[in-house]
Design a protein that fits this description.
Blueprint (H helix, E strand, L loop, with lengths): L6 H12 L3 H25 L2 H11 L4 H8 L3 H15 L4 H11 L1
Length: about 100
Amino acid sequence: MRAALADSRYEAARAEGATLSLDEALAAAARADAVAETADHEALRALTPRELEVLRLLTLELTDAQIAQELVLSRRTVHAHLRAIYRKLGVESRVQAARWAAVHT
């Protein structure tokens, strides 16, 4: 959390959390999980069928060239799909995209 938030926001959230009872903290965590699950589902639905194929092959640790060959695409087209996948999933690399897919699919 500290890495995701500015120091002032982290400290404010930490202080607020310290005032919660156990039941309140569990309820807040459940709400946060529900929000995250909805966002993840929307991100997955935002991917086109071809992007889903590229993501699936990415999780198999295929290179861009291997993905291109498997899907009969150019490597440039694979790169374009990967950029779109990264943007839609909010990740910055193929490793992060593969991790996201492992957790959410």
